Amino acid sequence: MSLATDIRTALETTLSAVTGVPAAIAFDNVKFQNTANAAWLRASVDYTAQTNAGIGVGAPIQSQGLLNVDYFIPENQGAGDGEIILDAIRDAFAPGTIIVQNGRWIRILSAQRAQNIPVSPWYQMPLIISWYVYEL
Question: Are 86 and 71 within 8 A, CB to CB?
Answer without folding.
Answer: yes
